Amino acid sequence: MNGIRVTFGRELRAYFFSPLAYGVLASFLFITGITFATLIGYLNDAPSAVGAPMEYFFGGTILFWLALAFVGPILPMRLLSEERRSGSLEILMTAPVTETQVVVGKYLAALTFYLVLWAPTVLYAVIVASYSKLDWGPLASAYLGVLGIGALFLSVGLFASGISRNQIVAALVGFALVFALFILGLLEFLVNDQSLRQVLSYLNLIQHMEDFSKGIVDTRRLVYYFSGTAFFLFLTSRALAANKWR
Amino acid sequence: MIEAQGLTRRYGDFTAVEDVSFSVESGQIVGMLGPNGAGKTTTIRMITGFLPPTAGRVSLAGIDLEQKPVEARRQLGYLPETVALYPEMRVREYLGYRARLEGVRGKRAGEAIDRSIERCLLGEVRDQIIATLSKGYRQRVGLATAILHDPEVLILDEPTVGLDPKQIIAIRDLIRDLGRERTLLLSTHILPEVELLCQRVMIIDRGRIIAQGTPESLRQQWLGRTVVTVTLKQGAPDAVERLRAIDGVVGVTANGAQPPVHFSLECAEGRDPREAVFRLAVERGWVLLELQQSKASLEDIFVRLTTREQDEAAAGDEAAAGDGGEA
Question: Do residue A243 and residue B98 have CB atoms under 8 angstroms apart?
Answer without folding.
Answer: no
